[in-house]
Amino acid sequence: xxxxxxxxxxxVLLLLAGVAAMGACSRDECSIGEARxxxxxxxxxxTCEQDCSDFGCTNxxxxxxxxxxxxxxxxxxxxxxxxxxxxSTQPDPRCAAGxxxxxxxxxxxxxxxxxxxxxxxxxxxxxxxxxxxxxGANSHCVPTDHDQATCVPxxxxxxxxxxxxxxxxxxxxxxxxxxxGLAVFTAACQRCAILEGPPRDAQCTGxxxxxxxxxxxxxxxxxxxxxxxxxxxxxxACAVGAYAGDGGTRVGDAGAGAPAxxxxxxxxxxxxxxxxxxSYAKLGVPGRELKCIAAFCKWEP
Length: 301
What we know:
Elements (H helix, E strand, L loop, with lengths): L1 H24 L9 E3 L6 E10 L2 E11 L7 E6 L2 E5 L15 E4 L2 E6 L2 E7 L17 E4 L5 E4 L4 E2 L9 E4 L2 E6 L2 E7 L2 E4 L7 E4 L17 E4 L5 E4 L27 H9 L17 E5 L2 E5 L1
């Protein structure tokens, strides 16, 4: 009996020791709501978050953002509850509009938080933080509404139909994509219609590359053509070999003075001579390059 008590006492002591050890291992590192700069090789902004496992919940430092030396970012802690990867530790009055404010510095798109510059994106050249509306053609920065800015093609132009806004409009059978009152993309349609929303977007059918059953389904200047794969699409005749290399032209590369009937005419028909093809051309075109192949315009990946 005495021996059994000793064993039970030892077991209790071991259990208590184990609980104490687990408590020591699971001690909170921080308090929820705190922030810090980790320093070291990671140059990381961290926040205190609760981490739960089979052994319980503890508060641990968790990385919220990794500062990029290549962008000139450094970790900065303006308050005990805020840690940011910033471009400058000096507040910028152009960032005073709010945590998600953006502005143009030349053709650089600058993003802000807490009154500080976080990073800049060179329009048309810098893809690291690019949004869905940024690609090589969008090389010009413009301010938009609600303290925002974005990258657009430099050929974008003010259009009264945009009414200073950022949405899609129909100008007869022409689709107009608007950003900050600028037409950033236009497309020739057989039919353009505003869809009931929200959001109230515009639908364009019969554009160059759209599926069709007959010529009446296609925009003016195009015909319903079998593209060689058994698929009928709206297309137009063009001159093969007008350009060296692959015999076609990348959309957006067409310049002034291109010979009539060349691959450049494919693009001119598609966009009515408006700004070049970019991510604003959200029409579901079946490729990224418009070429003159077998004497007809065709989209290719």
